[in-house]
Amino acid sequence: MSSTQIPRMIVRSYASLPKQLLVGYRSARHFHISTRLRTDGVFKELTEMRVRTPWVEALRKKQEEGIDPTKKSDVAATPSGRDLTPKRMADSYHRVVIPLAQDPWLLDNYLNANGHIRLGTIFMDLDALSGVIAYKHTGESVTTVTAAVDRITINHPLKELCDLELSGQVTFATGRSSMEVSIQVAKAPKEAGAPVHPEDVLMTCAFTMVSLDPSTKRPVAICPVKVESEEEKRLFALGEKNYNTKEDRAKTGLRKQTPNDEESDLIHAMWLRQLEYHDPNNPLRKPPNTHYMSTTTLHSSQIMQPQYRNRHNFMIFGGYLLKTSFELAFCCAAAFSHSRPTFLSLDPSTFENPVPVGSVLYLKATVAYTEPVITSSSSFSSSSADTNHDPSSATTTTTTTTTTTRVQIRIDSKVRDVEHGSSTKPTGQFNYTFLVERDIGVAPQTYEEFMIWVDARRRAERVRGSIDGGGGRMAAGDGGGMKWSGKDDARGVRVTE
Length: 497
Hints:
By secondary structure, the chain is an alpha+beta fold. The protein is 30% helix and 23% strand.
């Protein structure tokens, strides 16, 4: 018997069960009185909204109909007369409370070995919630996917074990195919319906979702958002600004334009400095705390299992990609700095191509950019930060020891079928920033690495600009994190893996 026959036989044996027994099989899922535990890292309520059909049934339907739902069709499945009447933001509002303080078995899925909250698990919940919110706005006749994560930041550290409230709504949609979903994670109020205080908001984020025709996989129009209050006008204006900014950045990206004059000067200066490092007649050598970018990479590969599928059954949902990419980024930052990193933010990241169930996902983590966090007064020349804080390239008037560094990790993801017969497709790029308690830097050598460095530098500058300008919805801090023990360090409670 070939391996390809096994799934069909399982499906056939399942389908051949008597109807009465099949109904009992579906309903009587427990062998004891204990409650069923979800171990895929997504809260039960969100999982049930995301996965509605058992995998064995979805697989059987696919085999019986002989249609591959992952392939494009020329015939549109979206009804032509859909109601596209503008909807209120409140129509898509959704709230979920995760009772971490009440359910120790549920808490098992959210803690790591050190008692820290696993941020990757929270990221899965956030993406799952963004899907629920998006479908409340679009309806079930379209396929809605995650196109980008605009930013996830820690606002206030979690210093005690508590229930978490995840809530959000569609805050920007003009009637095209895309929408912005804004979500926050906060300490759940003790009384249901009570407002959340600003100091209780732990995390904020924004997802860009896109609606597609289920058959043609082409973008389809959705209902625009109708704004009513002044706060809704502010949120809509912020979403519109984010949309226009992304459009402008796409036009000026490094794939469209060469580095600007300042960036070109920095690249040339760094290249000259590296020539000096290798000149036997020059005593200058690469500082021991500066590492070449090529030595910082980490790789991972894994097969995509159906337990992490989206509601359409044959593609992996975006939250799982966020979780796996975050944990690889954490490992990369830890290996680079030889310390335990503190998460600062998930910076603007994109999803390019879907990841089919059964495919092989390849991830590559690279230290793309480092930036010192100056902890005492000092007069540095402009080359100090722009050359990856190479101490030998900085001119100072006072002596300062930098003890912390922001480290930006870039994750490139690709997918290929398990037979490795088709070409590899890029599936997305994810950018994470950590804080490490080390004075350490990264230096590019090849032209490709210089472009990675320039792209990450631009991203760091934009983040600094949003922080200095008040940040709107997404203002970030330098330290802090989420941990449920009462202990605190000098910067706030840490977030780790």
